[in-house]
Amino acid sequence: MRRRAVLGAIGSVALALASGGAFAQDTVKVGLILPMTGPFASTGRQIEAAVKLYMAQHGTTVAGKKIELIVKDDTGVADVTKRLAQELVVNDKVAFLAGFGLTPLALATAPIATEAKVPQIIMAAGTSIITERSPFIVRTSFTLPQNTLPIADWAAKNGLKKVVTLVTDFGPGLDAEKTFEELFTKAGGTVPEKLRVPLRNPDFAPFLQRAADAKPDALFVFVPSGAGSAVMKQFAERGLDKAGIKLIGTGDVTDDDILNDMGDVALGAITSHHYSTAHNSPENKAFVEAFRKAAGGMRPNFMAVGGWDGMHLIYQALTKTAGKTDGEALVAAMKGMAWTSPRGPISIDPATREIVQNVYVRKVERVDGQLFNVEFATFEAVKDPAKAAK
């Protein structure tokens, strides 16, 4: 029954397109599907704020077409994401599907993007395989292998010999675990424990105790945006910091949205990531100031910059196609596109439709009384290593 329902829904998409679909619209609709409620609501809040800021600064007309944003809350549940994507394509005739706060949500939509020939812009989800699931998927966020490579390199070159990994047990976490272990052990290190925590309702305490019992030099952590506070709190409660165990990881664990509330336990954490609120560039300083004003003082995080650049990609693709919303033409326009983002120089790899970007190694420091991820090393123009190796 489930298979017939899915095929029927996709058939409805094809029928809608055959009757005209998005191609005849004077208004170009962008369907933004995000977790606006539930445990991953911070992701949705950040991306929505950045997308609306981009539109406020750049106007709502591109190549003579009016841009209309339709925001939908999928609550972080893949079946809801899929249903909303179907409705947006069939009923609302959107020209773009965008957002996707978690990997399962992006993967659930991929068949619809393919059948409907609607570009699917990944502004958040970070599992490497996502872009391989549809030729209409283009990513403006990051991949976990891309962000893990620099911290594995740093760990191997800075005296760490024994590292336990702790990751959330879904696609991005498995990507991070695999990438870190491969690179770190190749450089001579050892990974005695690989700990995986459930995505839903995680309790980090027993896993952190196992990590402490292994007596590593460091604990490598990946958790989704917003979950870092619980890790940091329980890291201190279990005494790992007092035992001299360093905390390293990808920048998700020291997410700028929540970093300042973590307290002193976060000080000294070393992470690698593609964006920090403290990134020192004129573009980022302007972005942070405008975002704070527009979003009631909220700090932009890496999800926000994924949304900002996702809208830039949409606007520039429409400019290149002179407002035409043929999906294949739009994706072709996106391939190879390059610009200067608040995060630094970025481009879309024409072969993979993945983002190519600088990744920075950072340390949590107190600056003017607040905690920030302060960058101290740069890996330039990093491609997704999982695809580069193929």
Question: In short, what is this structure?
Answer:
The protein is α/β, with parallel strands linked by helices and 390 residues long. The protein is 41% helix and 23% strand. It contains 13 helices and 15 strands.
Q: Into which percentage range does the β-strand content fall?
A: 15-25%
How many separate domains?
2
CATH superfamily assignment of the largest domain?
Response regulator
Number of strands: 15
Largest sheet data:
9 strands, mixed
Compute the average pLDDT.
93
- Using the coordinates above, name the CATH class of the largest domain: Alpha Beta
Q: What is the second-level CATH architecture of the largest domain?
A: 3-Layer(aba) Sandwich
Task: Give the helix level as a range of percent.
Answer: 40-55%
Structural class: alpha/beta
CA radius of gyration is 21 Å
pLDDT < 50 stretches: 1-7, 15-24
What best-fitting shape do the alpha-carbon axes yield? globular
Alpha plus pi helix count? 13
Order of helices and strands: HEHEEHEHEEHEHEHEHEHEHHHEEEEH
CATH third-level topology of the largest domain: Rossmann fold
- Span between termini: 37 Å
